[in-house]
Amino acid sequence: xxxxxxxxxxxxxxxxxxxxxxxxxxxxxxxxxxxxxxxxxxxxxxxxxxxxxxxxxxxxxxxxxxxxxxxxxxxxxxxxxxxxxxxxxxxxxxxxxxxxxxxxxxxxxxxxxxxxxxxxxxxxxxxxxxxxxxxxxxxxxxxxxxxxxxxxxxxxxxxxxxxxxxxxxxxxxxxxxxxxxxxxxxxxxxxxxxxxxxxxxxxxxxxxxxxxxxxxxxxxxxxxxxxxxxxxxxxxxxxxxxxxxxxxxxxxxxxxxxxxxxxxxxxxxxxxxxxxxxxxxxxxxxxxx
Length: 289
Ligand code: SF4
Ligand code: SF4
Description:
The protein is α+β, with helices and mostly antiparallel strands. The protein has helices spanning 50-58, 92-96, 159-163, 192-208, 223-237, 246-261, 284-287, and strands at residues 3-6, 9-13, 19-24, 31-32, 38-41, 64-65, 81-82, 102-104, 117-122, 131-137, 140-146, 178-181, 184-187, 215-217, 242-244. The longest helix is centred in the last third of the chain and has 17 residues, at 192-208. The radius of gyration is 26 Å and the shape is extended. The model has no long low-confidence stretch (mean pLDDT 84). Residues 54-55, 59, 61, 63-64, 82, 87-93 line the site of one iron/sulfur cluster. Residues 54-55, 59, 61, 63-64, 82, 87-93 line the site of one iron/sulfur cluster (SF4).
């Protein structure tokens, strides 16, 4: 008679898979609700260890440690607990968990049934371009997961990509231009706002010259918009005062890479690390501890 051991549950089957007997221990598994984004319900855990592998081998955060010894040594239940000192809240463990023991707090109760459809897109946060599945229900994004079979992330996501989508449906999101009117802002149309900017720019240029104006392009813009922004400032306004906000956060990296490799950009992709024979200046085995 096949018998299955799932945590404190002992389930016996007949040949036709009918459940013959099921012993359920008292539900004393912890419910870890300590973080604002992840819930861990260990009463559902089947002890597969996938979260452990996702955390240690895929994201290399080493935040989930395996319980020591065999399952018999843990009559209270074998489940991997999280060390929040190391957890980056990337959520890779959630994506790996096959039984929903780990789940997104924001999606709790939303995914009952199969009503959500999946839409593939690119993460809007940085230039890595991680591939997303948006889980959409009634035109609302209720959850984000990484696309497993696609470059560059192969299912991995960081905390921003996986959980930072509230702005999409935020009631505070700006959906129209605002023009300052004394101490307050007033709503303006998409025709009025750019016209006002053009009038003010022309006035500043006439009074103080073209170099009195400067532009900073946004890292959230696509390449084509960043290109148009520098064209606007160089060709239309006539100044070289044009920069990009990446100078603030990436200037040291660019300078360091340029000095070391002759180019201020990554020389290889992440995936190519697997084929590298030598790593200089970094101890991969220790850097994640
Ligand atoms: S959220 Fe990420 S870092 Fe935290 S335990 Fe899960 S896999 Fe590890
Ligand atoms: S992936 Fe889920 S079921 Fe598997 S050990 Fe982790 S919490 Fe338990």
